[in-house]
Specification:
The complex is a heterodimer of chains A (195) and B (220). With 195 residues, chain A is mainly α. Chain A has nine helices and no strands. The chains are: A mainly alpha (195), B mainly alpha (220).
């Protein structure tokens, strides 16, 4: 057996396993579904890590976001899977769609200036006048946040925009804004607790 | 329904998804297309009824060229609708020659239409180019908008991973169906009138609008 045959067989085995798990999941088998989802996480992590790196994004949370969005997409659209068809093309079509959607949003996000680098000093300069009580440590923690999370906090918590308004400004889905906000608050809390 | 609310890790999300897992009853693509076609033709019947059917329907249906033209349009509508739904299933591909097939049938419908007028004399250039024909185009656009809205809802139930392709095909489909509706409403059979105001103007506009709105409307 040569190398290419080995790869071919392993691909076919994986396809057969995923297809079997998906077929059982469609019948409502929870154990199979759990196993399928865990398998998909590792497959999707490889796929998105490459895709996101090519987009020039360094925020590792993006890969997690994309994996979660894709798993949700697979869950909601699982009725479109035809047991007679291959599973892998179905999976990658959804993953590719989510990646392209992310790249499109990311492009819009950059276009509105959401990803401009911001330093702690710049933040302090901007916000000291507006709210003198904002401590230097919070300002530093804010500046240390990934760009997407920082803008989410700035728009929703500081400028008090609604999620819908922030969604429009950032060019992201409402759920993605909520995720960014949730992560930002968690990171800020941890950062401040650590001093 | 589980929503992306910032799960700490994939494990949490997976447990939430497993928690709401239910057996899935899959509706076949053919059945979906048949249902879509039934709803669209019913809606079109109502729309044409409101706008009033032309008086000489019996004469129209006894004319072979007219029937051929209508059959060509019906087949373009059905095939384009099927391709649109097919493209909204992840991992499925549309035959490469699909657009060529549809174009050939469209040319066939134009030839049949021309044949229908050959005996009567094409003449009527002034009638064909009469700008009042814009009323027909406007009506086709309006009908297509209504049929398109329902079609978008049907497509969103699937998972359009290539929204612009799905939107293009569904636009061709609803434009074809609306043109059939217009043929049942508009008494003018002048070749140029039908070609310009029923086909050449509305089709590109509908396809352009569909592609423009595809990413917004078919996002999931």
């Amino acid at each position: 057996m040569n190398g290419s045959e080995g790869i071919k067989i392993s691909f076919e085995q994986r396809e057969a396993m995923l297809r079997e798990l998906m077929s059982r999941s469609l019948l409502g088998n929870e154990a199979a579904y759990r196993e399928l989802m865990r398998e998909l996480v590792s497959i999707l992590r490889d796929f998105f890590s490459n895709g996101v790196r090519k987009s020039g994004v360094t925020d590792l949370n993006v890969v997690d976001d994309l994996i979660q969005e894709t798993l949700l997409g697979i869950h909601r659209k699982r009725h479109t899977y035809d047991k007679e068809q291959l599973f892998t093309p179905w999976l990658y079509a959804i993953a590719r769609y989510k990646l392209i959607d992310f790249q499109r949003r990311n492009y819009r996000f950059r276009a509105v200036g959401g990803l401009e680098p911001l330093t702690a000093e710049k933040y302090a300069e901007d916000w000291n006048e507006a709210d003198p009580l904002l401590s230097a440590s919070l300002l530093k923690a804010m500046a240390d946040l990934p760009d997407k999370q920082r803008v989410a906090v700035e728009l929703v918590k500081l400028q008090e925009l609604s999620i819908d308004e922030a969604t429009q400004r950032m060019g992201m889905s409402a759920s993605a804004v909520k995720v960014s906000l949730h992560r930002a608050v968690k990171a800020l809390r941890k950062n401040l607790e650590d001093g | 329904m589980v929503e992306s609310r910032g799960f700490q890790n994939e494990g949490e999300l997976i447990e939430a998804l497993v928690g709401e897992l239910k057996p899935v009853v899959r509706v076949s693509l053919q059945r979906r297309v048949a249902l879509w076609l039934f709803v669209c033709t019913s809606a079109l019947f109502v729309l044409v009824s409101i706008a009033k059917f032309r008086g000489d329907l019996a004469t129209m249906f006894s004319s072979v060229p007219h029937v051929l033209t209508a059959l060509c349009l019906v087949s373009i509508g059905v095939v384009s609708g099927y391709f649109s739904f097919l493209s909204a299933v992840p991992g499925r591909t549309i035959p490469k020659r699909a657009l060529l097939m549809v174009t050939i049938v469209a040319v066939g419908s134009v030839v049949a239409m021309h044949w229908g007028q050959a005996g009567a004399g094409i003449g009527g250039l002034a009638v064909g180019l009469d700008p009042r024909g814009i009323h027909c185009t406007r009506t086709i656009l309006f009908w297509s908008l209504i049929l398109g809205a329902g079609s978008v809802m049907a497509l969103r139930r699937l998972a359009p991973t290539r929204p612009k392709i799905s939107a293009t095909w569904i636009a061709i489909a609803v434009a074809s169906l609306s043109s059939i509706g217009m043929a049942l409403h508009c008494p003018a059979d002048n070749f140029l009138h039908v070609l310009i105001w029923h086909f050449l103007l509305p089709f590109p506009i509908i396809v352009f609008l569909a592609r423009l709105l595809a990413l917004r409307l078919l996002r999931w």
